[in-house]
Structures are given as structure tokens and as C-alpha cells.
Amino acid sequence: MSGLGAFWGLYKREVVKIYRRAFALVMTFMQPIIWIIFFGSSLNGMPREYLVQFFGTPNYIGFVLPGQLATSMLSTGTFSAMSIVWDRRFGFLKKILVTPAPREAVFFSKVAGAVTRGLVQVPVMLAAALAFGVALPLDPVGYLEWIAALMLLGIGFSSIYLAVAMKSSDWQHPQLVANVMNLPLMFTSTALFPRTFYPAWMRAIADVNPITFATEIGRGVVLNDPYTPTLLGYLAAFAAASMAIGLLVARRFMTAE
Fold this sequence. Notes:
Number of helices: 12
Radius of gyration: 19 Å
Largest sheet: none
Structural class: mainly alpha
Number of domains: 1
Order of helices and strands: HHHHHHHHHHHH
């Protein structure tokens, strides 16, 4: 079995799991939509001049939309980590590791599955934003760059979470780690608020937070606000470094038990 063939077969399994579990798929969509409906709508009650002054748009939902899609990639990374734990507990990983399939194929299939799960939210979230009055521009190149940014963000965080869960057989372990990491990562980025709202120490974190990079690219598309093209380069470096760490951990610690 070639590494590519093993990857493709395992990746198809991850995709099938996404679409066969209708309830889980709906819940994947609901979390960011709930943020838009309740959190976004609550801040939309601010006076229009304040919205424009602080957020650069009269509709706060347009400001928060890219941030919610970026932070959603954190959740999909958590699911990929939980998936490998369940594969170990139910014996599927043992069956795979006794075949010629390389460990790298297992690792990459989990990462690709997590990224796919995150990207299926994009059209749903864009439709929800349109329903709430966000004027989305026609910018095909911008949308491609935005999707690329989300893909790189998903690759980076799913690699990190997989590395954390690689030796664990406790399904609660990835969730506990995610609970500790996700909220600080979200609130120290520009996903919900501009960096001008933050104290100096939070601005310093936001400036190097990968969620900020993906959010700024998306916000540049939605709000027609030019962004630095090097942001994609930063995300590519983050994804490459995280994936290298994840691969090293997978080669050494991925076991059936």
C-alpha cells in the first residue's frame, strides 16, 4: 500500500464520517451561527457612528464573521484529536497500523479531515451573514486567499491538537486541552474586537496570534479593507512548523494502545 493510497482511503473515511453524522454536522454549523445571531446582534445595537468608528462598518456582524470562521478552525482541530482517540479505543487504529499504511498517512488524513470539516462552514456562514444584512463584495481572488488562510490555520491547529492527543486513550483529554487553549486564543486575537481595545500585553499577543492573521485576511475581503499579503506567509510558516511537530510526534508516539 502506497502512502498516497493509504492517505486517500483514510481521508475518504474522515469525509464520510462528517456527512453521515447529520446531527454533528448541523452542530458544526450552529456554533458560529449562534455567535453571529446573539453576540453579533447584541453589539449591532450600538449607535451607528460608534460601530463605524470602532469596527469600520455599520454592521458588526460583518466585522465578526471572519473572526468566527477563523476560531471555528480551533473546534475542528479538537474534533480531529478526539477522532484519533476514538480510533485507538475502538481498535481501528490497531487495524491500520498492522497494514503497510505509514503513520504519516494516518496523521495527514486526520489533518485533512479537520480542515474539510472547517471549510464546509464557509458557504453556510456567508449565507447567514447575507441574511443579517452584510453586503459581501464580489472578489473571487480575495475569497480564494481567505479560504487558503483558513486552510493553513486549520492545518496548524489540527496538527497541534493531534500531537497533544497522540498517546492518549482518554477522549476527555483533547477537550480539556481545548478548553484551556481555545478561549485565550480567541480573545487574544482580533476575532471579536479590534486590537485598539486591548491593553498593551494583549496587543502583543494579538500581533503574533495566527487567528489574527486569518481574521485580518477575511476582514479585508468582507470590509474591503486592504491587508498585508505577508499574512498568508505567516500562516504558511505556522502551518509548516505545526505539521512538522505533529509528524515527529506521530512517528514516535502513534501506537495502537
